[in-house]
Each structure stands twice: as C-alpha cells, then as structure tokens.
Design brief:
Two copies of one chain form a homodimer. In chain A, 43% of the residues are buried. Chain A has one domain (3-20, 31-189): Hypothetical protein af1432 (Orthogonal Bundle), CATH 1.10.3210. The longest helix of chain A is centred in the C-terminal third of the chain and has 20 residues, at 126-145. Chain A has 194 residues and is mostly helical. The first copy, chain A, has a two-stranded antiparallel sheet with strand order 1-2. The first copy, chain A, contains ten helices and two strands.
Chain lengths: 194, 194
Amino acid sequence: MDERFRKQIDFIIEIDKIKSIFRKSKLFDNSRFENDAEHSWHLAIMAILLSEYSNEPVDLLKVMKMVLIHDIVEIDAGDTIIYSRDNTKTDDKEILAANRIFGLLPEDQKQEMIGIWQEFEEKKSPEAKFAGAIDRLEPIMQNYYTEAYAWKTNNIPAEKILSVNNSKIKNGSDKLWDYAKSLIDECVDKGLIK
Amino acid sequence: MDERFRKQIDFIIEIDKIKSIFRKSKLFDNSRFENDAEHSWHLAIMAILLSEYSNEPVDLLKVMKMVLIHDIVEIDAGDTIIYSRDNTKTDDKEILAANRIFGLLPEDQKQEMIGIWQEFEEKKSPEAKFAGAIDRLEPIMQNYYTEAYAWKTNNIPAEKILSVNNSKIKNGSDKLWDYAKSLIDECVDKGLIK
C-alpha cells in the first residue's frame, strides 16, 4: 500500500472514535444521547434541505464538508455544552486535536480539512455562518421534542439559551432563527424552562 | 410556519429514526454494532477523501448526497446483510419506503431525493458506482478490524464475500477493490473465514 493511501485509511479508521463521543442532547424519541457522528450526519442532510434559507448564497459542498468534520476534534477534546464555554474563541485543546487528527492525512488533504475547520470556527464566511446556524438549530429542536431535557438537566435558563444562540443562528439564517426562537418560547410557555 | 418549511422539518425529524437502525457490522473498536446514521456519515467522509480513486470522474456533491440518504429507506424496510439478498434489484419494501419517507418533503425536494436514491440503486452512473464501492468497502474494513465478526457470525464464506463485492467495488474503483481484496485474503490466511 502506498503512503498516501495508507494515511487516508489511517485517518478513516481514527475518526471512527467520533461514534463514541456522546453529546448532551438526546435523540428525538428521547431514547438515548446522540453521538457526534449521528449529529454530523443530521446536519449534512439539514444543509442539503435548508440551504435555501441561508441569509447569503452558499457553496453547499463546502457547508457539507464543514458540518461533517466540525466535531472530529472532539475525539481528543471531548464534547462541551455550548452554555459552559467561551464561544468567542476556539479552545486550545481543539487546535491541538485538529493538528493531530487531520495531521494523519496526506499534506494536501490535511491543509484542506484544517482550513475548512478553521473557517467553520471563525464564523465569518457565508458557509460558516450557515453551518453554524444549523449546528445550533438541531439541539434546540431536540430539546423541544424531549421536554427540554438538556436545558433542564444542565439548568440553562431561557435568557441564556436565547442570548447564546440568537446571533449565531440569526447571522446564518433569519428564517431558522425565527423557528428556533418559537421553539424556545414555547418551552418557556409550557413552564419547562425559566 | 409555512407549508414548505413544515414539510422539511417533518422530514428532518422523521429521519432521526435511522439512528436506531443497527447494521450487522461493528465499530472498528468492536464495542457495538454500527447504526445507519453513523455508517452514512463515515461514507460521506470517505467520499471526500477517496474520490481521487474513482475509475471515472465524479460530481462529489452528488456522491455525498447519495451516501448520506441511501439508507433512509431502512427506517421502514430494515437492514439486511448483502449476502442474504438479491442484489440485482431493489426490494419492493424499499421502494414503498422511499415513496413514504421522501414523500414527506416538498415536491421538488422529494423528486430530487428519490431521483438520487434510484440512481444509487441502479449503479449505472459514475457517482452511483463510486458511492456503491465505498458503501461496500466500509463493512469489509470493519470486518477486518473486528476479527471478521459479521462474516463469522453470519457464516459467510470467503468465496461469497469475494463474488458479491468484487464487481460492485471494482466497477467504482480498481484501487479500492485491490485494497478490499487484500483485507479479505488476509482474513482467509489467518483462518478467520473459509
């Protein structure tokens, strides 16, 4: 086996570990926690179906690559609920993880993947803003359908849910933010969160 | 909420069920069976990294859409190991499932998704042949790394593994078939399969 192919296969095997990184939110049927591979798969389908609602035109292929790889760093850095972290900058542990894991790939693919991941983290390009919006929308939908499970369990007040997600989703899609806000508001109306 | 958006959201929630459809092969660390969402996620990453080995040039975006949605029909039709089915035609249960599940979408997206799924099933276009190749490659890699778990458990002889996968993988990628064949051969040499 040539070196380039060996590196690609090594990476493909390494990222299997993402299937054992569990998130704080549950499947829509409330049966168990969702893992990062399932979450990333769901976002890619959402990107295909909902990109018409992006505030700015996007390159769909790039959005899909972003959402498919965005959580690979959690193999080393773990999953953290967005409400407990500084969302203005990328965690140092995640930068180290990106270098180690994407570093398994041949140089050209390593550079492409790290570039896409950094672009996603920076949330400046239309693709990164839209990818960020659907990354935030999915757990809001999951909370809505599981009686606010992750929000209640982690004691997140509605005010914080609104403030942390507002700009991130709205920057990518006004339409998706209107929807997300309506779900959060309904959870408040039902007395599930304060 | 307008009707178009409501249909898109209904579909996005419905397909969450794919996360509870478990396959016959295990994760690379042998800890548990893989589900269809995780499998589809892994194939999409493999498509990004390995499309340079397709026998014919492919539209990567289309390959990714194919592998991300190809197993959605299993929500209704269930997962069947390829060695126990007629791989020359699509199961009627799967056609009914495609119509029901993709039928939740707005008409234009329903048509696009059913079209992509049918194209994948027919294995005639370069994209379908390559998507089919990686769909077959992943479980061969998983078997190789889990001491031939699914092959042994389901009593699949090497001859059948080779004949069922040979044309399907080779039609999409000679390079990937050479690799797949080397893994199967090694399992025979180790005495894991006959």
